[in-house]
Design goal:
Length: 347
């Protein structure tokens, strides 16, 4: 076992265009956790490593004491488990109230903001034409031109056909776009005030937002132009987040619960405006065995296929809320009052 508490270096299979890959590797770098990154995908599995249960990117291969590896997917539990193994440079705030808010914001970034990422990338012709070749060359920059063109057309078609699955369709598109456009100045103001969402040091939520913004704010022409034009500070922050290995975080750098309402309020209001209503409608549809979620979000109709994983996200958030002490639950409720997120504490 090394001084990190791990039995050697992690191996990560990931792609530069995958927001969750970018979230995980930036978090590992910040945490000084040694890893070897393998750019690629499960089309070319890493020789000698086990297959994960679900072939998602990133896949993190965690060393065993016997010299083998366990293949793990899903950035949220991966980062949470590493939190217990490696104590230094934590991603979760030490105050349980702030840790809950960090989890809520992480979940919003992973599960809602990704709708904007997928929507912008695969719905407008300029963005589609840009993304197709990028996906091919992120996977293998030596792909010959002709093969790259064919692969780009194939991947683009497959991704466009998946748009509906993540909830992007003509009914939902303006809700998704307006939500992204409201988020940009909210984050810009938070960064101006304290440096990060979680205070003067980053939490898991900062890395989750960063992961989606590596694409929305930088790569895809339409949303990246909006970020550069309206929120240059946020645009610069995205680049800095990539490597925070030199930051020396202190305990007092965490956002204090007494400042949570004023610092996080607008972001929590955005989450309560769009994501929490979605989570509730989606979980209701899942429970009723319905294939489609039909609801209203932000005053407009919302429809998409029911998403089983996101029904679990609501369960996990509610379990986290219920596990807080009564006093901490009361503090959370007062921070969340009027944001639309307070219903996570309803029994
Ligand atoms: N909840 C997962 C989501 C991971 C995920 O959806 N990864 C995408 C790439 S960004 C993926 O592998 N999609 C399947 C595919 O592209 O075939 C996480 O947080 O890691």
């Amino acid at each position: 076992m090394t001084e990190t508490g791990l039995h050697g270096r992690l191996h990560v299979l990931g792609a530069a265009g995958s927001p969750y890959t970018r979230k995980v590797i930036a978090a590992l770098r910040y945490r000084h956790i040694p890893y070897a990154l393998h750019w690629g995908s499960h089309r070319n599995p890493l020789p000698g490593f086990p297959e994960p249960k679900v072939k998602l990117l990133p896949t993190v291969y965690v060393p065993n004491p016997d010299g083998g590896h366990v293949a793990k997917v899903d950035s949220t539990p991966i980062l949470a488990e590493l939190e217990h193994v490696v104590a230094d440079r934590a991603l979760q705030p030490s105050d349980p109230v702030m840790a809950f808010l960090d989890h809520l914001i992480e979940d919003y970034a992973d599960e809602w903001l990704t709708k904007a990422m997928f929507h912008y990338r695969w719905s407008g012709s300029e963005d589609i034409e840009h993304a197709g070749p990028q996906l091919v060359f992120w996977h293998d920059p030596t792909t010959p031109d002709e093969a790259a063109e064919a692969a780009s057309a194939f991947i683009s078609r497959r991704q466009i056909d998946r748009l509906y699955v993540v909830g992007s369709n003509p009914t939902t598109s303006s809700t998704i776009e307006q939500s992204y456009q409201r988020l940009l100045p909210i984050l810009d103001h938070m960064i101006a005030a304290r440096g990060y969402v979680m205070g003067a040091r980053p939490g898991t939520s900062d890395f989750a937002l960063y992961g989606q913004l590596t694409q929305l704010g930088v790569v895809d022409p339409t949303p990246a132009a909006l970020c550069a034009a309206h929120t240059p500070r946020l645009r610069a922050w995205i680049d800095r987040m990539e490597d925070l290995s030199g930051l020396e975080p202190q305990g007092e750098d965490w956002l204090d619960r007494t400042a949570a309402r004023s610092h996080l309020g607008p972001l929590l209001g955005e989450i309560g405006r769009v994501y929490v209503p979605f989570l509730i409608a989606n979980a209701g549809a899942a429970q009723a065995g319905l294939a489609e979620v039909e609801t209203e979000i932000d005053g407009r109709a919302w429809t998409q296929p029911t998403f089983a994983y996101q029904a679990k996200c609501l369960v996990w958030l509610k379990q986290h809320a219920a596990a807080l002490s009564d006093d901490d639950q009361a503090v959370c409720c007062s921070i969340l009052a009027g944001t639309g997120c307070e219903c996570l504490f309803e029994r």
